Amino acid sequence: MPLKQLYYTSCKHPVTGTTGFQVKAASPGISQQTMDVLNNLMGYKIPSRLANQPIEEHPAALRYYYINTQEAILLCSQSNGTDEFSRPGNYFVHALIGEPDIINELPPVMYWGSPLWVDRDDSPTVELPTLSKISDEAKFDYNAAWAFIKSTERRQWFHRLLCAIIDGRRKIVIVDDIDNIAIWVYAASLAFPKRFQAFLSFSTYHHDPRTAPFTIIGQPIDPDYSFSNEFFVLNARSGDVSEAPPSSYADYVNRHFEETAYEEELLEFFTWTEPRARRTRQISRVLDHLADFYLARTKGSALRDWDRVVTASSAIVEDVIRHADDLQLRDVEDLQGAVELLGDALEKDTSVLDAYRHALTTLQRHDSSFPDTCADAIRRLCFFINNDSPEVSSQLQTLLENLYTPQLIEKTVNEPGLMAEMAAALPTDRLEPVTQFWQIVGRYFNFGAASAAGIPPFFKASFAALDAQSVENALRVPPAALTLLGVLVKTVGEHRDLLLRSATEYKHDHPDSWVFEWLYYLLVERLPAAQRVDPYWKVYWNQFPDLYRYELRRELMKRTDTESVLALVATWVQLWSDPDVQRAITSEALDAAWERLDQVQIARGLLRDLGTALDPVWYNRLVERLLQDAVIESPDDQTAALYERFESDPELQLDPLYRAVIQGALILHGKPLTEEAIANIQQRLSQIDTPTYERAASRLMSQLFLKQHLAMIRMTYVVHQNEAFWGVYWRLFHDLLLKEQRIGDTINVITFWFEAPSELVEHHPYVVPEFFMEILNVLREIRNNRSYKRIEHDFEGVLTHQPWYPAIQKAFQKSRKGLLGGFF
Amino acid sequence: MPKSITCPSCFEIYPVDHVKFRCTNAQCPDFNQVFDGPEPAKGPLALLRPVVTEAPCPTCEQVSFKRLCPYCGFELMHDAGITEEHTVAVIGGRSTGKSTYIAALVHRLKNEVGMNFEAGVGAMNDHTRQRYRDEFEVPLFREHRLLAATQSASVDPTAKTPMIFRITFQGRRRAKAVNLVLFDTAGEDMQSLDMMSAEARYICFTDGLIFLLDPLQIDAVRQLLHGTEIDLPERVPGSEPKLIVERLRQLYERQFRLKGTQKIKKPVAFTLAKIDALFSLIDPSSTLHRSGEHFGYLNRADVESVHTEITNYLLTWMGAEFDTFARINFDNYHYFGVSALGQPPTNNSLETVSPHRVEDPLLWIFYQFGLIKDKK
Fold this sequence. Notes:
A: ten-stranded mixed beta sheet, disordered C terminus, B: about 375 residues
């Protein structure tokens, strides 16, 4: 579309004769809408301070305005004297209207000072020709900007100017010489890609910045009023320059705004920017976002401002969403980049999660190669797992599983390269992340495939993390460790051998570690002992000789009652034929549980059932413990047999006092007396308290009273227990005569005392006298017993024939009872 | 006290508490954002502060005093809704001297008239102060040069932005403040009904009109002055007073759907401008040669005398057509004669500027508003 021209001034119209400000001449085809825009752009008033100066000193106003993709306007308003009423203030506007591409072939401000601008037309012409292009060459110096901006002050001001242009919320007023204003505008134009230059409206001069519809408005005359903060003011004369919100685009461009860097750096950036901003119709923060995105993508991450990167990347995502029906490959690549940057930012700040999720979800919709991003998504997930962010990890897991198929996740997770990365990154000092890793990622491992070769490093790292736990007692596995072990076992499923093999290797490398034991026991603990033998005991007890101890102790920890401990030990022992193993088991069990069990019960149980599976030390100890509190009593058959075994065991080194218990019991069980037994029992009875003595002595004396009276007395008589002895003795004597009515035996007992052997006197010099001191009283007492009547005749009949009868006769003399009996 | 505001830009009328605010903190992320003000006070507090004049920006919380019209976003005066306000537009054909008249009128109000009425006059905002100074006062009274033509509002939005002056009458008992909202109009905008409708619609919403008539565009007058020392300006087609007043009537009918028989009720001062150029045609004993002599009141006798004289002159120069049209269509109008410069310019320059009777129309309008009293 050709350029249209228009002249506007105050005149008498050559055709209509109307006077005043009006369109004097124009090319055909300028619409009313365009005319309405033009009206807003053309107004001109001479700066009041120059009103009395010659026209040449009145500033020209070169103005550029972008209407839409079809039209832009470039015009020059110039003062040109008086109107037809001789009033001052007339001006002439020469406007060009055409496509922005044509108007912006060069930055429009380059037509500043061009002779193409008409400032007077007295001809009768009312129709102007259209133009195919702006015919006159621009007179502007192409290199004017570099030297102009070079000074430190101007460079700082230029930076703020760019910030203000990007900010876009305030009109920009530049107070400077009119030619400088043009250079400011030119420099600002150069700071933007060509496409954006078209959006940068300006007027080198406008009498009323308040109503001027331009982005940049020049003020060549110092205004004698101050601008409100609704304006950004660059006053190059006073050096007062408004603050402007920061802009990363402005930062970047200003940093490279010199001739060489412009060519080498900025033009490349502009080339990158142009197509990405193809839908933008104004200079805006979009450029900030693009600059941030460009720098983040091309300049590495060292100096990234992550907030800006997030904003920029999110803007890219939103742009893709807005223009989903018009996407190009470049857009998708940018979206991929945005996802990557947001992922990086997420690792710095978890509040970016929503933005990352949004970006990834968007990418899924628009990128046919989206599955390729699975590995990166998994890496992000691992990052948060490894850095103790369970909540984020959980959300990323959900995201991962929503966006990618399980098959793809599995395939990706099992790729050797990614596996190596993940294994290397897995922490070895904390359990929670490792546990979460196995729960979220590990479950995708293909343990049965060739890729399983990459799995052991994960086990190793996990074991190291377990090992890093502070453990006071290896038997008590920390709950977190137990959780991880449980997760590991569950994750490997049927491939436990792989896990155990790794654990075995780890144990070999770290002999002090308990991890293998923990894992091993977790695997075996639910198995009955019989099922452990082949797959576990025979394999691992050989490799780790102390493993049985750990396993056994863990088992024992679960058992609180002696019976179940005995049963456990018995079970285990019975599964091994090797006595050494058996002894090792029993010894370990006793070492572990001895203190907390019923020792007598376990001693009896073990000695009875597993005597051969006990090592000598424990055997002795058990026997002693069994006898320690035992009393001399009549044993059952089992105990008697046990005692018999003890007695017959030449290896058994027993204290005589304990042996006295065995011997006493066996005597009560019917075993013949031995001198050793008499001596041992006598010694034991002399060392126990009276009640215990009474019980033991009573049993022995009852057993031996008739059969071996002498041995009985030698065995049971203890001087300091003589009262108790005689108490038992007389009771037995009493019962013998009265209850059992064994008159002959009674006569024999009495005879025994009258014929007391010398050895009795030798061993117990007081026992015989003590008998005779009491026998008369005992007999009298018997005689007075009501039961005595039944045997009186027989007993006394035999008694009186005994040689020693006179010695006891007094006990049988009838006392005179009755009224006078007491006197005789 | 007004409980509503009439926007001087779009002329919508709305309750005072409907105004919006704009953030003026350049550091605020939402700088320039428009937001609602707080709820107005209720109960006894409403008596103390009946108008909300400030509000914190919801983003930066900095208090803003910039109140905006909720309809067009026009920035309201700081006392809009608080101070009584009257709007007057100065209209007329091209080159009738409207801007010059306004320059002289404000100058008179600030000086002699203000003194006579014990009234202080000051610009209400920077825009008014700057515009009056740069475009009216300095060129005319200090540099003694003709004012530049007022540009069409279509080209220069300034034309649609009124100048606002605060006139404070001292009074005997208590002071009274009134805002005078003055619209200057470009002659180009009066040249067709469409232009008036598009660019000078405010005419319909003003409280009073000062309608300047350029006697030098009246054929009879031009013939009478032909050959005298008066430089007759070029004829301005389409700017004849009769045409403009007819367009004014049409504009009202269009805007307010007036019936043909309904009269326009607002006070209209039909003012013959540049009467200094007519002095040679006017009877030497005419009241128009003297000043109005409004010493703290409207000199009704003088006003009536001027009205009668002008009526007669118009009848003589223009026939009955104009006056008849005015009588039929305007309920409250008066004729006045003024000279903004006091004498015609010589070679487009002014030796002195001596405004003559320029205050008469405005004082008559003030009297119609009840702002001043009269005396016969």
